[in-house]
Amino acid sequence: MGDRLKGKVAIVTGAGRGLGRSHALALAAEGAAIVVNDLGVASDGSGTDQSPAQQVANEIKKAGGDAIASYGNVTKLEDCQKTVQEAVDKWGRVDILINNAGVLRDRMVFNMSAEEWDIVIKTHLYGHFNCIRAVASQMRQQRGGRIVNTSSEAGLGNLGQANYASAKEGIVGLTRTVARDLGRYGIICNAIRPRAGTRMTLNEAVQEAWTKSGGAGLGAAAGETIEEYLPPPEFVSPFVVFLCTDEAAKANINGRTFLVVGGKVSLYSEPDLIKTITKDWRKDGPWTLDELIARVPKELAQGLVNPSPPKKEK
To answer: What is the set of active-site residues?
Structure first.
């Protein structure tokens, strides 16, 4: 075990399996005490099971670390507050929050139910907010803390995941704003878009899509295997630990989003205006439809590619 996070206390949500488990073990290996938070639901959010969280806590303690299991539901603010209080009661502080808990309810947008939309938004977007809201007061009192949120490449647009993509891209905006709200108190907030093989990504639908397209439909390189495209979670966690260190703060890393996959870490740019058309609105008033028809295709839309053009009828 290392000691870069010795004396720190971390809450990791969704830590019973997959990425969360890997993050919890990696943080513990650097000396942090861990609250292993997991409701133990299935990948679609159904059911509960306390054993995954307890198993990870036991694993950390067996390796010489310190951990407790917590079973709070991140969709409920009061549960998140209770989880924070469990950490404070046990160790007197909370230094790190890793927001990782998530569920999937994939369906094409024209078939998606309100329930399928709600549970994904609640778990991911509300879950991130609830945990941040619950821990913010404690971190402000301590005048410091680290928050790592979990977005996804799916937030850039992914077939059949309107709910998940919306939540994950909302998390990016949340990250930017939390960094600004809490930065003055020494609290750093960043986000990752991880790509890894877990029960949520190596599911039947992904396996079927891979078989049909050889991975091309998922953006894989030619000849790349699904195992190469989706490496184990352990390849993501070192960067999550890095974001929790003093070195990351000294490098002014705050409010940023990173892709983390295999041996690659990439910093995403912030959205920029790339083309502009203007008119003198004070003199000539608002745009007319004729003006927009004449100028937008040639000046703003030139070179754009439709990501999903209509299929030609056979």
So the answer is: 164
